[in-house]
Every structure is written in C-alpha cells, then in structure tokens.
Amino acid sequence: MAEFLQKIAQTPGLKAVFNYENFRLQPAIDKKAQAAFIRPNEKLDHAFKNSIAKGLPPINVLPMAAQHLSVLTKLVGAKSVLEIGTLGGYSSIVFAQAGAKVTSIEISPTHRDVALENVAGLDVEILLGAALDVLPKLAAENRKFDLVFIDADFDDQWEHFDWAVKLTRSGGGVFLDDVVPTMIKNGEVGFKADGEVEEKRSVIEKIGEDGRVSATFVPIVANMRPVMPDPMMNGFILAVVE
Ligand SMILES: C[S@@+](CC[C@H](N)C(=O)[O-])C[C@H]1O[C@@H](n2cnc3c(N)ncnc32)[C@H](O)[C@@H]1O
Fold first, then answer.
1. Per-residue DSSP letter, 62
2. pLDDT for 117-139, tens place per residue?
3. Which molecular function term from Gene Ontology is one that the record holds (predicted)?
4. Residues of the chain with pLDDT under 50
5. Within a 10 A sphere around the Cβ of 2, how many other Cβ atoms?
C-alpha cells in the first residue's frame, strides 16, 4: 500500500498533487469557484453592506458556504429551518431564498434589529435570547424542523447540538459549523512542544457516541481575505437524525 502510494506520488504530473503547500492554492481555487457558481444576489449584497454599515462584525458565512447551505436546503427539501446565531440575517436570507420558513435565534438585540431590516419581505422570524433559553421553549411547543444550522458561540456547541437533535424531524439534518476553530480554541487538538499532535475529547467524540444521529465531518479551508491574509482550517459536522 505504502509502496503503491509512493509510486503514485513520484508519477510525473501527479507529484505536484501530493504537496502540502497546495493548501495555499485555496484562495485561487475559491475565486474560480465563486466566479463560476455564485450568482448576483441583491438581497445578500445589501444585507452584508448594511450589517457592516451598522457596525456588525463580518462573521457571516462566506459566499461558498452560503451556496453550500442553499444547495443543502434544496437537497433536503427543507421547508423549515432553525438557525442558532442570526447576526445580520445573511444565512437566514440564504435559507429563506432556498424555500424554507426560517426561525432564527439571536442573543444580541442590536444584531436582531439589523437582521430584521435585512430579511424584510422574507419568511424569517427572529427570536431574541440566549439559545439555551429559547431552545427548550421551542421543544415545549413541540416544534420540529427539517434542518438546523448551528452558528453561534463556540462554548455551547455540544448543548446546541443536543437541542438541535431534539428539534429535528426524523430524516432531517443538523449542520454544526466552526468545529475546527472550536477544537483548537479549547485545546482539543493542537501541537505539543515536541511537535506531536495533542488530542482530547471534543464534540466529535460526543456526536460519535450519540445513537440518535449518523454524522460526517467535512474539513474545509476557509478563505477570509481580505479580513485575514491566510486561509484558515475549518470544518463542519453534518448529521442526519435517525
Ligand atoms: C457567526 S455569527 C452568525 C452568522 C450568521 N449565521 C450568518 O452567517 O449570517 C454568530 C451570532 O450568534 C450570536 N450568538 C452568540 N452566542 C449566542 C447564544 N448563546 N445564543 C444566541 N445567539 C448567540 C452572536 O451574537 C452572533 O450574532
């Protein structure tokens, strides 16, 4: 096996494929894909500009991630989407334009107010409060969603995921964003002084042990230029509720 892979790695034309430096090509590849796949969208452009003008941080999903969420919503045929973390409503707009009624939870009144301006005319309700206060209320009302998108604070990811599963219909999906930065921030993965990789229990193991779902981890290289000069290692978990 190792011999076979070494042989492939030495094959002219393929040698360049096995090069760690290729991650640096991400901005160029992303630019190409954006030019090919992302169609003009006045509502999203306005939401982004209005959010920045109103002082919100530029931490909405990136254009290709937004496209991914749109495709996913259509694939699932999601008619109802629960979102944890509204910000200025950028991703809410994506779900609504993909055909879903959106319920979004936001802890900041300022963010909620800007989001309400941005989502005007779309089927989006925004619930103000901390997700861990609002989610049990939705469960008490027996609400169920086709898809849940978790994109709030890093600290409560597992708790948000747990509630998301309770609030998702059987066969529906839960999308947990920003898994890698959370693991790095929490010291659940990283480099030790000797260069070896440190690994501790993280949301990945917790979800892996959760018999209510089947899950996959999708690593991505996020290109946040011009806000950050280097591409960032990220990844999301996509789970289907059994
Ligand atoms: C990354 S932003 C969301 C971006 C948004 N999904 C988008 O792509 O346009 C995270 C948002 O979650 C909100 N937030 C953070 N912790 C929260 C919590 N515990 N409950 C509800 N909202 C929270 C923040 O105020 C912020 O607006």
1. P
2. 999 999 999 999 999 999 999 99
3. O-methyltransferase activity
4. none
5. 6
Domains of the chain plus CATH, in order, are: 42-241 (3.40.50.150)
Question: How many residues are present in the chain?
Answer: 242
Alpha carbon 53 to chain centroid, angstroms: 24
Lookup result for tokens 């609400």:
143
Nearest ligand 1 atom to the CA of 108 is 25
Which pLDDT value is given to residue 119? 98
C-beta of 61 in contact with ligand 1 (< 6 A): yes
102/95 Cα distance (integer angstroms): 7
Residue with tokens 């009624």: 101
153 CA → ligand 1 middle, Å: 6
pTM for the model stands at 0.96
CA distance 186 to 237: 17
pLDDT per residue over 6-17, tens digit each? 888 888 888 888
C-beta separation of 168 from 150 below 8 A: no
Whether the CB of 119 sits within 6 Å of ligand 1: no
Q: What is the ipTM score, two decimals?
A: 0.99
